[in-house]
User: What shape does this take?
Amino acid sequence: MIKYIIKRLLLSLLLLFGVSIIIYLLIRLMPTDFIDVMMAPRIAGGTVTQAQIDAMRRFYGLNIEHPMDRAHNLVVVGGWENFFANIRSFINGYWSWLFAVLGGDLGMSFMWQQPVSTVIGDAMWISFSLAVVALVLQFVIAIPLGIYVSTRQYSVADNTVTVLVLMGMSLPSFFFGNLLIMLFSRNLGWFPLSGIESGHLDLDNAFRVFLDRAWHLVLPIFTVTLLSIGGLTRFTRITMLEVLSADYIRTARAKGCSERTAIYKHAFRNTLIPIVTMIAGILPGLFGGMIILEEIFGIPGIGQRALHALRSGDIPFIMGFNMFLAILSVIGTLLSDLAYVIVDPRVKLDR
Amino acid sequence: MDENLKQDSQLDKTVENNIDSGAEVETSQNLKQETVSDNNETKKETAVAQNNVKVISPGRMVLKRFFRSKLSIVSLSFLVFLFMFSFLGPFLTSWGESEADESPGAPVVVQIRHTSRTRVEDANSVEMLLIQMLAPHLSDATIANAQRALVDSEFLANNPNARLNNNDNMVMLARLYGTNSEGGMSATGRVSPAGGGIFMHANPIPGGPSITTPFTVVVRGRDHHIYLGVIDEDDGPYGTFIITEREQIRHSNNPRERNINARPNANQLLGTDRSGYDILTRLMYGGRISLTLGFVSVAISLTLGLLFGGLAGYFGKWVDNLVMRVVDILSCLPSLPVLLIFSAILDGMPQIPVHLRIYVVMGMLAFISWHGTTRVVRGQILSLREQEFMVATEALGLPVSRRILKHLIPNVMPLIIVGAVTSLGSMILTEATLSFLGLGVRPPAAAWGLMIASVRDPQIMIQYPNQWIPAGVLIVMAVLAFGFLGDSLRDAFDPKAKR
Assistant: This one.
């Protein structure tokens, strides 16, 4: 077991190495004069002068010597004669970034003028609270629902749930979120429009602050839960159907087990096994935030920060955030494999 | 028929005959009805006649099972409708994708449910109820029209003190005042020239320290701030205050005199958006983009997946290892951030012309999704490789290419087709997300996500739901239809499915 874990960890490190190279390559291909590109229409329109842009770059430290700043646009420094110079600069840049990261320094964010790790750490917990509540609700609703309809296949309930579930999986998140805002915030006024706290609140009363924040988060949580229930219900239903037609359930019934025990004790446990493998996909979503929903509902989580950074060319943050998500993916996969082994005694580790 | 295929279908039929499903066994009654259409099956018919089974090829069996379910017929017909709507529809509408409706627009009722109070200082002093229209973007022609209409109407004749005045940004279309015999004020005027004007109806209460003047103003199609003020002719403006409340006014920002934000009418069945484009036509063009992007990306991703998954599954060992490591790395990349980075890179490459951008976006979408297909194909091939019929083909000495092309691939196809149809749905969702964020096709081209993005303006969200809700509904229905289609196909392909 320990040997397996160590082997997987080493493999994961190799994986992360590969992922970091790809992401670094993509980021190096981004135009460094991103600010200029973004501002070009405004310069042309006369609303911003080049001098102001230069001042902004100085303010954001874009002309400070930083490993990430030695980036040239690989395409623009053109021509095949510059090819080797480009490669050398790429390798140099990558090594310096790698050593910095291994020393714990993810770089300094341009936009927020703080270490990237601080920026991520601060904003992460808001998204986490949103995601965790949605996750719990999702599981609490979807798994019993899936089990319920699997025992009543082809009935009215089954067909209705199938259609509703498929509809939930087809809804684009931004459309549904905006629809809810229109209905409940603007027309009915039941919930606030955006943000996570009201301005006038007395910050000392922690319970009130908590209630207020919960009130703000009702619509986002509702959206996320509704959109994710579909997949989980479907998965549970299919797994449960497979399990119910297995031989051991038939044996249990033949031995005189009540239907209730057969379903909830024997079948349920075996259904949980594939669900455990879904941990791999859940972990990045838990900490990584939801970019679009946070933008629509105005939640200052990490997804919103990532969107701002991506739009303004905050390269250190983009690099740090993407690596963060990749690390979460890898850890998630590793955990789900381990969980699979623990939960299912039939699975052996050696191939 | 090819010998190998015959052997295969024999094998399949024997397998199917042995399965205790009862779905494939037809009674001799049906035999009579179908004999006519299946004359090339007669040879096999006599061969298995003793089993009293009717024999049709597996492909037709699948189609038969497929059309049995109502759901699949409904979803298929909806998809056919969607295709015709997107690709043939634009020929039927009279609007182009980015063709703005240049007519001045239907009259916009500006109702001011607000009473203003003006003080009447002195019954004898000249007081004027002044209505100014602040319309900085009105063209000269429109102003001239309005003034001419004012002149043509009887208004000026009836109000000898009313005057027309031009003043920088303000066009005073009418200035009216008057005193009635009790010393109060009365002002009534009705002006409705063709080019745009004011219908005024002011009814002040005579005398007293305050006047309540409710009124209704009807203005045609422009953005206005309406000032109500009382001006003392000798001393200049007494006071002006804006009496309009934005929420109560339905107006349009119309610097170039287009018919923008129109409600659904006979000309434009779903109205127009804030640039004057017809919504229904843009829905059709958006459908073209979504469907094309979906199909091409899925096709590319499918090809790559078949190629690499096939190589990995069939040849095994180091090829398998290499391909799976690459797939693992790609599957760890976060999809939306990477797509955003790609778009930023695209923005920085000025040498890519606008109309090529969409093809690059297709490539981006395919890049994000091909690792999933590869995994599925590899898994399926790994399990198929050890089955008896593959061993049989090897024993028969068939060349590798024939083994792969004629035996392995047709058995992988069902899973691939089902996966492709389902991922079409998610590809449409991804494309909509990209264009919502402004990273897909650029305006003035139409895309469903782009149309939903107009909801950022709260005015449009509340008052013009006809601009963004249809696009969302179409997205949901398209993805739903593809999902149902995929489900039905999967049930149709599976010979062990319960009827």
